[in-house]
Amino acid sequence: MNFTAKGSPLKGLTGATLGFFFGFAAVALFGPTAKKLQVIMGISPAQVGLLVAIPALSGSLLRIPFSAWVDKDGGRKPFLILLLLALAGMTGLSALFLTRYPDNMTAELYPLILFFGFLSGCGIATFSVGISQVAYWFPQKKQGWALGTFGGLGNLAPGVFSFLLPLALSVMSLPAAYVVWSVILLTGVCVYWFTAFNAPYFQALSQGASKDEAKKSAADLYSEASRKQELFPSGGVVYTLVKSASNPYTWILVLLYFVTFGGFIALTAWFPTFWQSLYGFSVTAAGFLTAFYAVLTSLFRVPGGSFADKIGGAAASLISVAVLGAGSLIIVFTGNFALTVFGIMLMAAGMGVNNAAVFKLVPKYIPEAIGGAAGWVGGLGAFGGFVLPPVLASYVGKNGDAGYRQGFIVYALMAALAVLLILYLKKTEKRGG
């Protein structure tokens, strides 16, 4: 058949990364404003923990079905739907704040704010869709670099917005800041619409090709081996979810990703409160420190993919979680600001590299169901962003300000578990398991 494809591997990577960047900003949705909302609305620390975590709930759970959808129709349609849902949530928050903030912001509005936060978090779910979309564009030997670049640059969004939102709040009202954020998200939807395309296989299917014809057309589209599509789905949404769920490696990768990516989302939401409450920093200074952590973690993810290409995903993962554990223990046992920052830098390095290494392993261990596996790993792994802030808040509730440091023992314990899982992974590899 005569087949023409829009885009290229580089354009596919660029479009998906830009879309994810705008959608992922919702990780920082309530972090910089949680302290102010707590005072105005009179809500408890536990409710604050839930508030900053709620975008991560939708952003994690929706990754599973939407990522699996990629194996059926490609990434463009599910990606756009998630961005539009996020835009609806941001628009709802903007309207609520415009009409009720600050004098009429009562505790009765808390469930509605949670609902709009849940919708806004749909943009976070674009990650697993984008992972699958990018993976299908690239041959396996370039997976680490491509997926590390996608995740690393897209992950810059929480850091950027953690810094920009406090600055915006210093020169404009909270409602105005959220309106501007909504306009930025709308711009992101438009950018994705015009730049991102499905991998050639899915484009051939949409032009009427059979699955066999689509595979041949996609494989023959580019003469250079570095641009050829090598990965193809084996079935539809249900098949790819069941197939990947039946592979035990999927669940090892889920747990590894829970530790570092779920942990990353949790800290991006938690750090504004951490810095303000424990060290007495202003909203702007706390936003800057949170942005420093989030940007550093994201930047480490980019070379982390190439590092995993070079030494192997399992080896890169093992080194990175050990570094994460060391950093978290430093924070637990010191109240010194400089040492705390150093510990956070170690955590950022470990999280960034492991986040890239895990998705280097997805196409290797579950090549027949990348979309489904990326959904399970990205979805349940990111669920840590919802689970961990309330856990961290519980340490504060029990031990006061000292609990802000003590809560990081959770990260040390998770890092120890991750080391055991990776050693098991490497052991089964040697046996050919």
UniProtKB/TrEMBL annotation:
Record keywords: Membrane, Nitrate assimilation, Transmembrane, Transmembrane helix
Q: Where does the source fall among the domains of life?
A: Bacteria
Q: Which GO terms describe its biological process?
A: nitrate assimilation
Cell compartment(s), UniProt: Membrane
Q: Membrane topology per the record? A: Multi-pass membrane protein
Q: Name one GO molecular function term.
A: nitrate transmembrane transporter activity
Q: SUPFAM superfamilies per the record?
A: MFS general substrate transporter (SSF103473)
Transmembrane parts of this sequence: 12-31, 37-58, 79-98, 110-138, 145-169, 175-194, 249-271, 277-299, 311-331, 337-357, 369-388, 408-425
A single GO CC term for this protein reads:
membrane
Domain spans labelled Major facilitator superfamily (MFS) profile: 249-433
Q: Which InterPro entries does this chain map to?
A: MFS, MFS_dom, MFS_trans_sf, NO3_transporter
Gene3D superfamilies, alphabetically? MFS general substrate transporter like domains
Per its UniProt record, what PANTHER family does this chain match?
HIGH-AFFINITY NITRATE TRANSPORTER 2.3 (PTHR23515)
Entry's family note = Belongs to the major facilitator superfamily. Nitrate/nitrite porter (TC 2.A.1.8) family.
The protein here is known as MFS transporter
Q: What is the lineage of its organism?
A: Bacteria, Pseudomonadati, Deferribacterota, Deferribacteres, Deferribacterales
